Amino acid sequence: KGRWWQENSAKITPPPQNILYSARFIMAIFASLSCLLIYFIARISFGIRSGIFASLLLAYNPLMLYYGRRAMTEAPSLFFSLAAILSILLFYQALFKVKFKESFFLALSIGVYIGLACAAKFSGILTAVVFAILSSLLIVFKIIKSKTEARSPEIKIILLSLLVSSAIAFFVFVSFHPALYKRPINNTIQMTKAAYGMSLYSQSKCPNIALKTFRQKFTCLLKRVLFPNNFVILGNIIKKPLDMWFFVLGLFLLLYNEIRVFLRIRNFSPAIVPILWVFVTFVGIGLWIPLDWDRYYIIVVSGVSIVLGYTFDRLSRGFYYVFSNAVKQKIRS
Fold it and tell me: What is the Cα–Cα distance from 275 to 151, expressed in whole angstroms?
């Protein structure tokens, strides 16, 4: 640990053991439920095997094994972020099936979960970015496809859902911060500026792990979540960048299949939601991360687990197809 960390730790009075153990137990519940949520996200998007693989990969990731039992905000932040992503996925499914009432009520839950995710940790705002990008894409392609502009009922429900979910998210976020009650908008802006100033202060106090350029940030991010001797599973066992290879393969297959689906039906598949989640977490954390602290990477690991789960699902299906055909040919001969 650095000198700055030791000096601050010496000033902190640790909580009583019974409170600390209770807090750790609650965090473990949040972490376990996060693995369940990522299972449903991957299952709805790709299939049951993808869900099982993604859940196991997240559960046994070194970051989850460590922070899943620590009395810190990482576990609830991840849980509420994944709950928001699952709600966004269900929202899109309901919208695709023209179930407008269901999609509107899901927008309410999206607002609640985004607000809770932001209240737990500022990185929860990335879930709002995913919903905003998805909604923008849907509105643009609905206008292009129908050429009816705002008269389309889908466009109206999307705009209404965006407005309502934003209002609820802001209300939930403010409700957890009494200092924001008097002037919520102005004080939220000031809080954001203070958090940014604190990140700059942290960089000055911890120059050995400070990440000041975009190249440093993205290089460190990719190294931590995809390469051996870091926060990976396969790479730490075999000492080869297998996680990176499988991630690139899975991302290529995901994008290829999504393009094929869009060209065929002129619409997105449910896979667009986890694809956006992976893209937004990598770009968002890569642009912001001020220090090489392991706690910053856990939200990115969730997206990596989804892609790897999809990759292993496709590979297992491919191996089964080849093996079954070989057995059939052997029997016939």
Answer: 29
pLDDT value for 151: 58
The residue among 49, 47, 155, 126 whose CA lies nearest residue 298 is 126
Q: Are 172 and 116 in contact (CB under 8 A)?
A: yes
List, for residues 139-158, the tens digit of each pLDDT value: 888 777 766 444 567 888 88
Condensed to tens digits (0 to 9), the pLDDT of residues 4-56 reads: 555 555 566 666 777 778 888 899 999 999 999 999 999 999 999 999 999 99
**Max Cα–Cα distance, the chain, nearest Å:** 81
Q: How far apart are CA 74 and CA 58, in angstroms?
A: 14
What is the Cα–Cα distance from 301 to 282, expressed in whole angstroms? 9
Q: Which of 76, 65, 71 is nearest to 15 (CA)?
A: 71
Rounded CA-CA distance 304/293 in Å is 18
Q: ∠ at Cα 34 (32, 39), nearest 5°?
A: 100
Say how far apart CA 285 and CA 117 lie, in whole Å: 15
What CA–CA distance (Å, rounded) separates 148 from 198?
A: 48
- pTM flag (> 0.70): yes
